[in-house]
Design a protein that fits this description.
alpha/beta; 4-stranded mixed β-sheet; 14 strands; 13% strand; elongated
Length: 553
């Protein structure tokens, strides 16, 4: 449970922790889109109030995952209750802003909205009690607030200011009722006499049109003191009965008592508002509880949808066994293409990975970043097994479109971000570099990439560098990985069969083995770019010239 300070709630709601750098490079936004919240409060709770887990939060994350495990097991067998809770949550009206200030005069509509919120809140958490899952919620009693302004009809989903709430208010209401009764009686008597004299069914506020050719017209004209002429032309006149002194006097008394009722109502509403605002912390805590529950149900739903598992927290290794990149997996399966889960075992210091073109190095780094993000956000993970430390931050390299559009080159942006994050290299971070320094000349780029690997190899962080540069790992203590990549023998046979034909994209992908092997020797970068030219049926003379230049090197 985060600390609750009501005066800082607005600040908290605008807080975003800078935990993962360059998150757009890992498609984190697409993963976040899979989290479907029922309320704005759930979204705020997850993204703003529930901070990322970091090193030292082992006990907290274990509690979080245990609750999710209980929720996953329960709701897999009670899907109707899960859906009902989500529907109830989605109908909660956002009236929180009314209670963020020190005081607001609440009108009857405000009190109605508050009553409906309290009734929904009680219903939601009564439903959730069925699960026996003990979420860390604020302990509040909203029925005590309901008692303040609606002690007579608490369970009815309607509201009006009951006359028994104040003796003087009740007397004013009763006095008005008596006057209204007198008014109706006086109007009835007066209109009865008038109608009898003129043989017409006159009513107040219901004008009558009298044709000038009617016999009654002259009688009306002779007794205009009893009528108000609203309209007249050469064909007819439109008249309505004129109220007598007795009626006007009672109406005046009603107007005067209405003013007193209004003033008394404001006085009562002011008194009620003051008493309610003494409990505003509880009202705002109720919205936070709604957010906590919505966030929890969203995480459980996510875990069910991805068949997620709970990771093991271990500071000695970062082991992924058949981890899945949700976005990539979904994209490939939609095209009927094979998806290969990721299995890799990283250690503290630096690891270096190389592989063929189109082997999936970038996707590997994105998958690792996504899995690390999910864990630190307290979400279950799509994998067979995950063993991971809790990091203090995640960095994934890559160009930022906005800065590039402003004139900064991709290499310039890379150095800019690296400069700002480099101070964290010993702060137990996860660093993921996708072909560092590839945006500059090969000689300097290789030197920079090798220097990054050199310093990270002795750092207090976990790092993975993908590269096309050879010799990066020379004299550096590191793990070395290679993507198996293109099966040259299969490709050669297929190229001979489909000469001068376009090789289908899905066939090219099928020729690539995306699995990873750990190697002990110095990394030699696979050279298959020219093979890819052939697969894409590039111009034969172009390919021959490439081979000629390659031999010259």
């Amino acid at each position: 449970m985060f600390n609750f300070e009501i005066d800082k709630l607005n600040e908290l709601l605008n807080f975003t922790e800078n935990f993962i750098f360059n998150k757009e490079q890992a498609d984190i936004d697409k993963i976040q889109e899979k989290l479907v919240f029922s309320t704005i409060f759930g979204k705020e709770s997850f993204f703003n109030l529930e901070k990322f887990y970091k090193k030292g939060d082992e006990d907290k994350i274990k509690i979080d995952y245990q609750l999710q495990k209980e929720g996953k097991e329960f709701f897999l067998n009670n899907k109707n209750l899960l859906e009902k809770l989500k529907i109830e949550l989605s109908s909660v009206k956002n009236i929180r802003s009314t209670y963020l200030s020190n005081f607001n005069l609440l009108d009857e509509t405000d009190l109605y909205d508050l009553k409906i919120f309290i009734l929904k809140y009680n219903n939601i958490f009564n439903l959730f009690k069925i699960t026996n899952i003990n979420l860390d919620l604020y302990n509040i009693e909203l029925n005590e607030i309901l008692e303040i302004f609606d002690p007579f009809n608490k369970e009815n989903p309607t509201f009006y200011l009951h006359q028994d709430i104040d003796l003087e208010y009740k007397k004013l209401i009763n006095d008005k009722d008596i006057l209204i009764s007198e008014l109706k009686k006086e109007e009835k008597n007066y209109l009865s006499k008038l109608n009898k004299n003129f043989n017409i069914n006159f009513m107040f506020d219901c004008p009558k049109i009298i044709l000038k050719e009617d016999k009654i017209y002259n009688l009306i004209i002779q007794n205009l003191d009893n009528f108000i002429v609203l309209e007249e032309n050469y064909i007819y006149i439109k008249v309505t009965p004129k109220k007598n002194e007795a009626i006007l006097n009672i109406e005046y008394q009603i107007q005067e008592i209405d003013k007193k009722i209004y003033e008394k109502k404001i006085e009562i509403l002011n008194y009620i508002s003051q008493k309610i605002f003494l409990r505003k912390n509880d009202i705002l805590k109720a919205f936070i509880n709604i957010g906590i529950l919505d966030s929890f149900l969203t995480k459980v739903t996510f875990a069910i949808q991805i068949n997620g598992i709970i990771p093991e927290i271990d500071y000695n290794c970062f082991n992924i066994e058949e981890g899945r990149n949700l976005y990539l997996e979904e994209s490939l399966l939609a095209k009927n293409l094979k998806y290969t889960p990721l299995s890799i075992n990283l250690s503290k210091g630096v690891s270096i990975i190389t592989g063929s073109n189109m082997g999936g190095k970038t996707c590997i780094l994105k998958t690792i970043a996504q899995i690390a993000y999910l864990v630190h956000a307290g979400l279950m993970v799509p994998a067979k097994k995950i063993t991971i430390p809790l990091f203090n931050g995640i960095f994934i390299s890559g160009p930022e479109k906005t800065l590039i559009q402003e004139g900064l080159s991709s290499f310039g942006y890379e150095i800019f971000t690296l400069k700002n994050i480099w101070k964290e290299k010993d702060n137990f971070y996860l660093f993921l570099f996708d072909e560092p320094a590839k945006g500059t000349n090969p000689q300097e780029g290789k030197a920079i990439a090798r220097t990054i690997a050199y310093f990270l190899s002795t750092s207090n962080s976990f790092s993975l560098i993908s590269t096309h540069y050879e010799g990066i790992s020379k004299d550096i203590n590191c793990k070395k990985f290679r993507i198996k990549g293109i099966d040259e023998e299969k490709v050669s046979k297929l190229i001979s069969i489909i000469t001068n034909k376009v090789f289908p994209q899905e066939k090219i992908i099928e020729m690539i083995d995306h699995s990873i092997v750990e190697i002990k020797d110095e990394l030699e970068v696979p050279k298959n770019a020219i093979t890819l030219l052939s697969l894409f049926s590039f111009d034969k003379s172009f390919i021959e010239k490439c081979i000629e230049f390659l031999d010259q090197n």
